[in-house]
Amino acid sequence: MFRYFFSQPAECAGPSHGTSGGHDLSYYTKCMLGGILACGLTHTAVCPLDIVKCNMQANYTKFKSMKSSYQALVAENGGHSWMKLGWLPTLIGYSLQGSAKFGFYEIFKDLYGGAFSSLFGQENALTFRSIIWVTASASAEFFADILLCPFESVKVRIQTSAKGTFPETFVPGWNQIKNTEGTNGFYKGIAPLWGRQIPYTIMKFVVFEKVVAIIFEDILRCKREDCSKGFNLSMTFLAGYIAGVVCAVVSHPADSLFTAYNKKKTEGAFMVEIKKIYAEMPPGGLWKGLVARIFMVGTLTGLQWWIYDSWKAACGLKPTGS
């Protein structure tokens, strides 16, 4: 099983799968634009579910289930006004992150594929292309998170702070963190963010590409480009949803720590604060909100891949995993 996950017969591979593909700036630019659409729009669309999930993680003694969390938020806010909390930093942050996630992934995939081919030969680069996917996706997410972190920090504080203790809109919230905590307030959560997002992104790309390969090469036994656009996009969504479920489970503990860490102003050393947060959690606290996150991440990951491949099709590019 391990060998299947990290290897594949050479005859099934192609330049777009992690070898030296020779893509130009136009291709990478289109991928970056597709990433903006895929990540920015989907994360903003599921913002209400994200608010429920974040409050279950940050205020786990108060918000104990999705249903009770929803009811509490409605009661405290006198309606559904809470559903738009943090939508603007979500839109900006994940648009920037999406452009780097998808665009840099394509760039690193070509760079690492070319280097791997030079060192170990073209056949080995094709056979073990999943290793290239792993390293390319991890590298892309490292830089994408640097763009995302300040906006994610503001978003979490807006969504989880007790009413009246923190601004409920983006610009005032940004200014409060800037004036009271400085740069550290925006980037203090970068380590847990990397811990959440890098495993997430590795699974997002590798599992997606592997599921696509299983569907077309093992089950249907046909080339993806021989199928209709509609069928291809439906399989894109299916593979993306499966990848999203795996992503949610793998990255959830780090997501819980990130949410709790960014909820309030912290003054101690990072590891000291993390240990304190973990010690305060009830048994299984790292897994609070997992069901909500599986539903949220599975849905948005499937939609992200669907939007991304739809954009590529509109630009005349082949769907991912062709």
TrEMBL record:
The keyword Membrane applies. Solcar repeats lie at residues 26-111, 128-214, 231-314. It is a multi-pass membrane protein. One of its GO terms (molecular function) is phosphate transmembrane transporter activity. Pfam families: Mito_carr. The keyword Nucleus does not apply. GO terms for cellular component: mitochondrial inner membrane. It is found in: Mitochondrion inner membrane. Keywords: Membrane, Mitochondrion, Mitochondrion inner membrane, Repeat, Transmembrane, Transmembrane helix, Transport. The chain crosses the membrane at residues 231-251, 290-308. InterPro entries: MCP_dom_sf, MCP_transmembrane, SLC25A3/Pic2/Mir1-like. One of its GO terms (biological process) is mitochondrial phosphate ion transmembrane transport. Belongs to the mitochondrial carrier (TC 2.A.29) family. This is Mitochondrial carrier protein. It comes from Stentor coeruleus.
